[in-house]
Design brief:
- The complex is a heterodimer of chains A (69) and B (139).
- Chain A is an all-alpha fold and 69 residues long.
- In chain A, 49% of the residues lie in helices and 0% in strands.
- Chain A is built from 4 helices and no strands.
- In chain A, α2 crosses α3.
- The longest helix of chain A has 11 residues.
- Chain B has 139 residues and is mainly α.
- Chain B has 5 helices and no strands.
- In chain B, α1 runs antiparallel to α3 and α4 packs across α5.
- Classes of the chains: A mainly alpha (69), B mainly alpha (139).
- Chains A and B meet through α3 of A and α4 of B.
Chain lengths: 69, 139
């Protein structure tokens, strides 16, 4: 699933480890989500959204709409 | 990668159980050499002693899966275990028929556990290399 994690992280000058620490997950998890290799569960997606102060759909692209973008 | 609480507990318990396995195996082998082949109920109990720590490792793995809070790490562990299980069952099934038709020698059943651990290690290694080379990796 495409997402804006890398951009949002860069805007805040956070490393993957910084975000991982905030999410209480491993850096590998952040990397896997960021590169689209792993789709987070709904609770983790909400946690990510909370940390960036955004709605989930402002971070993750609806897979149904991915081809339109 | 910094180990979390569940991973530290898993590593510690596997190390303890493997130490127990080495001690149990060497003790039973030494006993059998000194007293002759194991027989009867007492022999069966002694013969089972080295199996107990290995069975314990499977229990530790199950507990780790429950305790691991990182969902991505947990899903990778499950994928690796599933691939290792598929490989092990395939090899054991094929070997069973080969043995059944007399074209392969008999192999002790406990080698299935060794094969499973080996397969899991290889899948983890492949996954790690695939990630380093930027190919994603299945598990």
């Amino acid at each position: 699933m495409k997402n804006r994690l890398k951009v949002l992280r860069a805007e805040r000058n956070w490393s993957q480890q910084d975000l991982a620490d905030r999410l209480e997950v491993s850096r590998q998890s952040v990397n896997a989500i960021e590169t689209g290799r792993y789709d987070p569960s709904l609770p983790l997606a909400f946690k990510i959204a909370d940390i960036f102060g955004l709605a989930i759909e402002a971070i993750f692209t609806n897979p149904r709409l991915e081809n339109d973008q | 990668m910094k180990a979390n609480r569940a991973q530290k507990r898993y590593n510690r318990d596997v190390l303890i159980l493997m130490t127990g396995y080495v001690i149990a195996l060497t003790s039973v082998v030494t006993y059998a050499r000194g007293h002759g082949p194991l027989r009867g109920a007492e022999g069966a109990v002694l013969a089972l002693l080295p199996a107990l720590p290995i069975i314990g490792v499977f229990g530790v793995m199950a507990r780790y899966l429950i305790e691991e809070s990182d969902e991505y790490v947990r899903s990778r562990f499950v994928q690796q275990a599933l691939i290792a299980t598929g490989l092990t069952l395939s090899v054991c099934t094929a070997w069973g028929f080969l043995e059944n038709f007399g074209v392969a020698p008999h192999v002790y059943a406990y080698y299935a556990a060794i094969l499973w651990f080996g397969a899991q290690g290889l899948v983890a290694l492949y996954s790690c290399l695939a990630r380093l080379l930027g190919r994603g990796g299945a598990a």
